[in-house]
Write a structure and sequence with these properties.
The structure holds 2 protein chains of 2 kinds. By secondary structure, chain A is mainly α. Chain A has one domain. Chain B is an alpha/beta fold. Chain B folds into 2 domains: 236 residues, Rossmann fold; 70 residues, MTH889-like domain (Alpha-Beta Plaits). Chain B is 35% helix and 28% strand. Chain B contains 12 helices and 15 strands. In chain B, a hairpin with an 8-residue loop joins strand 1 and strand 2. In chain B, helix 3 packs across helix 4, helix 4 packs across helix 5 and helix 8 crosses helix 11. Chain B is globular, with a radius of gyration of 25 Å. Classes of the chains: A mainly alpha, B alpha/beta. Chains A and B meet through helix 1, helix 4 and helix 11 of A and strand 7 and helix 3 of B. The complex binds adenosine-5'-triphosphate and magnesium ion. The site of adenosine-5'-triphosphate has 13 residues of chain B, from strand 1, strand 2 and helix 1.
Chain lengths: 284, 337
């Protein structure tokens, strides 16, 4: 691998992704969309929580759910940002074959395409968090935030999500139809299995191990704990583990899934070339 | 620059597995079979064949988009299967008849982005973009969003993308497909100029227009049903088909001149006569052009006036018919039925 090739693959992909993502003819609509959408998602959750717990917003449960939901925005954004580029380039712009014959690294190109969604996702996460802190009594004390844990976990988590996106991109490459569906379905499944808004202990025994194998489970827990320490006690699921232990598990699973992604992508890439799927277009 | 061949293939083959829902529907389709080609540096090489002949399949293999199922190929000195990363910086490809590109980017942005993927310095890229757009007469569209371009202009932009990175070997798949007469001429002219500018540049194009292959290409491979049937210069291909010179002569009424009398002249191979309005049409095939003088002389003796005389050259169409037994149009309608 050459650094210069990697860098130009990444840089130009990020540029292209951003041009596409920010291509809103009306910036006002763009702003409204990127604010309203996450806030309405959070609002639905808050109302449902209120109804179920009869308004018990002081419990540790509330920040658990609220923060889990807020950071989950990243999961869908980064993962589909990376994998959707395959569908976009192949089906809509018909450029995937030209990317493939160019002297770039396709996996790095795809990761670069995810940057734009990461940026818009970050805005959504920030707004959701701000709304929670300012109006909903989500008790984040800036002085008590574990910033080092927050930043380290955030970076590691985003990398991990991007690699999961690459895995998805590989599968997308060799999937003829319903490609868009794949990203949404995976994001939806992870929502359930990562303890985003309810603990894993709610799941039936036989499904629970799936959650324990998902790096997102530990990542969401770390994001919550770094902002509000005592949220760790909301559920017993991971309460017995210390921050560093969880970080270690996250690191291990990230490396595991990252390696798996590279491996899977290579196989899918080879299959796509063998079957002639790189310039395939489907008629929806 | 190295003295290697631009393109070299050995027994290249490609079989597509067709997936059907039922077992009986699973079939294999032989898209390419035993293709052996060599293209020298500096050549404009044409692949001529009807729909479904395997032209695009061959280009996809040579540009590393598709794996062959047998044989091997080298492009610009690199084995396309073992070292595709060495081939890619040296090649580029454009498929005609499609409007690819990012509609939300301007013409300049689209082209600039692709040049960056090839590591062309940004300033140089911008200069090249302007020069190329100038050459195809769309410089005034440089800042137009490509979604606002007509299909023809979008295709021209796409063609420029191929030239922009100054490849050693450029592949054009039906570059003039869907372009109007004027635009096609522009593109052909541009192709020739580009090749002239550097003797090492190589271009492979596919077409199913006979005239395009004939006028443009240094050498042509005629391909049908995945096989290369013949490969040579257009002149040599036609030459092989017909060593004799073929003339069509329209005359005034023959005044008792018989076909046999023409036939008896030295050097005349074959004569056919058909009546036309106000006289006769003779198709005369001659061993050599010089025999024509004796035929004309005979006409003068018999007081027969020559109204029109044309030398008919065999076309690549004739070559295709000779090789396949059907015209390319017939071959295409035959395939689709
Ligand atoms: N991905 C694919 N899967 C199965 N069969 C394919 C695939 N791509 C092409 N074929 C078949 O392979 C054969 C050769 O196709 P190819 O596109 O190479 O022909 P072509 O010479 O480019 O024709 P055209 O002039 O129509 O572009 C055709 O019969 C085509 O149907
Ligand atoms: Mg074709």
């Amino acid at each position: 691998m050459q650094i210069s090739t990697s860098w130009r693959s990444f840089r130009m992909a990020a540029w292209l992704g951003w041009m596409i993502e920010s291509n809103w003819t009306d910036p006002f609509l763009f702003a409204v969309y990127s604010i309203i959408k996450p806030l309405s998602g959070a609002a639905i959750l808050v109302i449902m929580y209120g109804v179920i717990t009869k308004g018990n917003y002081d419990s540790n449960l509330f920040p658990y759910i609220y923060l889990g939901n807020a950071f989950y925005i990243y999961v869908a954004a980064v993962m589909t940002g990376v994998s959707w580029a395959v569908v976009d380039d192949r089906e809509h712009y018909k450029t995937l074959k030209y990317m493939y014959i160019a002297p770039i690294y396709i996996p790095i190109y795809l990761l670069g395409r995810g940057i734009a969604r990461f940026i818009t996702g970050s805005i959504a996460v920030f707004i959701t968090l701000a709304a929670g802190i300012l109006f909903l009594n989500v008790n984040v004390q800036l002085a008590e935030v574990n910033w080092i844990l927050f930043i380290v976990s955030l970076i590691l988590g985003i990398l991990m999500l991007a690699m999961l996106g690459l895995l998805l991109a590989g599968v997308t490459l060799i999937t003829a139809r319903h490609e868009g569906f794949l990203g949404e379905a995976t994001a939806g499944a992870l929502y359930i299995f990562s303890g985003a808004v309810f603990p894993l202990s709610v799941l039936p025994d036989w499904l629970r191990p799936i959650g324990y194998w998902m790096p997102t489970t530990y990542w969401l827990e770390l994001m919550r704990r770094s902002l509000i320490g005592n949220v760790a006690n909301a559920y017993p699921t991971l309460a017995s583990l210390g921050n560093l232990q969880i970080l270690g598990i996250l690191l291990g699973l990230s490396i595991l899934f990252g390696t798996l992604s590279i491996f899977v992508f290579r196989i899918c890439d080879r299959i796509a070339r063998e079957r002639g799927m790189i310039d395939m277009t489907t008629n929806y | 620059m190295s003295k290697t061949l631009a393109i070299e293939t050995q027994d290249l083959g490609r079989i597509y597995k067709l997936r059907g829902s039922k077992k009986e529907m699973r079939k294999e389709l032989i898209a390419l079979q035993g293709v052996n080609l060599t293209v020298e540096r500096g050549e404009l090489f044409g692949l001529l064949g009807p729909n479904g002949a395997g032209k695009t399949t061959l280009i996809k293999i040579l540009t590393t988009l598709l794996s062959p199922t047998s044989g091997w190929a080298r492009v610009a000195g690199a084995d396309i299967q073992r070292e595709p990363h060495l081939a890619r910086p040296r090649i580029n490809m454009v498929s005609g008849g499609e409007s690819s590109g990012y509609g939300l980017l301007t013409v300049r942005e689209n082209l600039w982005m692709f040049s960056q993927f090839y590591g062309v310095p940004s300033n140089e890229a911008n200069e090249r973009i302007e020069a190329l757009l100038e050459m195809v007469g769309m410089k005034d569209r440089i800042h137009t969003k490509s979604s606002d371009l007509s299909t023809g202009l979008r295709q021209k932009m796409n063609i420029i993308r191929g030239f922009l990175t100054d490849p050693e070997v450029l592949f054009l798949d039906e570059p003039t497909l869907g372009l109007d007469v004027g635009a096609s001429r522009d593109v052909r002219k541009f192709i020739i100029e580009w090749l002239k500018a550097d003797k090492e540049r190589t271009l492979l194009l596919t077409t199913h227009y006979m005239v395009e292959a004939d006028e443009l290409c240094d050498r042509v491979a005629i391909i049908n049903k995945g096989r290369v049937l013949a490969c040579d210069t257009p002149a040599a291909l036609k030459q092989k088909l017909q060593k004799d010179a073929l003339f069509v002569i329209d005359t005034s009424p023959l005044n008792g001149l018989t076909p046999q009398m023409v036939q008896d002249q030295v050097g005349v191979q074959k004569v056919t006569v058909t009546d036309i309005e106000g006289g006769a049409r003779l198709q005369v095939s001659l061993v050599e052009d010089a025999a024509l003088a004796r035929v004309i002389n005979l006409f003068t003796q018999k007081d027969v006036q020559v109204m029109n005389l044309t030398k008919r050259e065999p076309t690549l169409e004739d070559v295709f018919v000779d090789l396949v037994g059907r015209s390319m149009a017939e071959e295409e309608s035959h395939e689709s039925s």
